[in-house]
């Protein structure tokens, strides 16, 4: 899997300004969270050389964010510990 984003595009909310957010695409082996089961609102994860890329399955074209390996491990540990349960 490539960790270099491709297909960079300017955010739709960045009209005619030079200070814009650009979003790139990571191509590779995205997989749906094993905790998502049959729900359509899911998180998809792809491994990178330094951690993970995460995106929303409902809007794949919106982009993704990346984490380091340590950030990803801490996040998964917090989920397993129930820190995000209501």
TrEMBL record:
Which superkingdom is the protein from? Bacteria
Q: Name one Pfam family in it.
A: DUF397
Where does the DUF397 domain lie?
7-25, 29-80
| Name this polypeptide is given | DUF397 domain-containing protein
Query: What lineage does UniProt assign to this protein's organism?
Result: Bacteria, Bacillati, Actinomycetota, Actinomycetes, Pseudonocardiales
């Amino acid at each position: 899997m490539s960790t270099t984003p491709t297909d960079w595009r300017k955010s739709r909310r960045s009209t005619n300004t030079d200070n814009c957010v650009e979003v790139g695409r990571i191509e590779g082996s995205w997989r749906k969270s094993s905790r998502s089961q049959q729900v359509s609102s899911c998180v998809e994860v792809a491994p990178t050389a330094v951690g993970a890329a995460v995106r929303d399955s409902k809007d794949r074209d919106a982009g993704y964010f990346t984490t380091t390996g340590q950030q990803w491990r801490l996040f998964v540990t917090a989920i397993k510990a129930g820190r995000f349960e209501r």
